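Input record (one chain):
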Amino acid sequence: MDKIIFHIDVNSAYLSWSALRLLADGAATDLRDIPSIIGGDMEKRHGVVLAKSIPAKKYGVVTGEPIVNALRKCPSLVIESPDHGLYHQKSRELMKFLFDFCPELEQLSVDECFIDFTPVKGCYSSPEAAANTLKNQIRDNFGFTVNIGISDKKVLAKMASDFQKPDKVHTLYSFEIPEKMWPLNVSSLYMCGKSSTQALEKLEIKTIGDLARTKKEIIAAHLKSHGVLLWEYANGIDKTDVISTPTDAKGVGNSITLPKDVSDKDEAHHYLLSLSDSVAGRLRKAGQLAGMVSVEIKYGNFHSVSHQKSLSPSTNTSQIIYFAACQLFDELWDHSPIRLLGVRTSKLSDLTAPTQLSLFDLPGDYALKPYPEAESKIKNNPVSPSKEKLAVLDKTLDSIRQKYGESAVVRGSFLSKTPKKPKSP
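The corresponding structure, as predicted from the sequence alone:
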């Protein structure tokens, strides 16, 4: 299974964020614990329900219905007006946190996003373990909860995040469709609204499985192109990729909040290898070279430090960036437990731009002076792979991964989970 996609969805986002603000202002009651909604005007009592608490849901209150109807169902309903400025602030904080986890992020709305977990999956024992760690960190750091859906397809990841709530992780891989998705009512299918549901029910299509097993031509005849889309979703067909925010011109980086605090250098180097691979791959994909690399360490007490150095000549070679990152890390780390590691490149230039060679840019050498632990190894094997050979290797690996998937070629250290010491380029 090559691609792994997360869909992260904040549970009752508007209500949760308003509840946290009220509690911070001294409120004695948490909106999430009582029948309450966000929406409209509390005094005039008009508008629609934007978000509801779980206790309100038990009264039959649904998102999108008029507040007047909700009050009929629950006369004691507490109504809080929306604060969109607060919501955008909370959204920015969450997305920044998720970007640190994995930069391959596509934001769908103020309270949900997709993440392509594939580039960092080698850092975790399993996608489920990573998602549970991420979910718990969001709850502990921000005070609200999320659901995370995991799949190999975007639409299935979104469906999975809508399973039992709140504060849950669910999987819906393609092979799990018959068991987990087909028994659901067709109205549960993503993009299947009220009118589509009614049209399908007239065809005696009650469940998602019924839709999946019906001939596509029959669905298309009644619901046109939208019906074809629904049929494809019911069968787990979705070829769309996570479209991350375009990289700015200032730099390319990646960071990871570690599954547990790390106090072992070799283990930290293992994560730096994964990060450097990801960063170098994004540079190559963008046709850019980096003239500067920096490493960030965030300790268990949330204190952050960083260190940077120039790369001469500029590069997008995985091994060179990794070697530089390890040098910087070893100079910077104070042996305290590490919570987050980041590798970032800057001073970018186009791949076709002229490159000024270093005086030390000779076959078998590299301008970066190795740190002591690697120096003896280089003396014993003075002819290291040339930058040209490393570049050809990266190009070959990129080509194989593009054709056959990210998992077609995997570093041995990621398979064995045994961290490797850096080798001089």
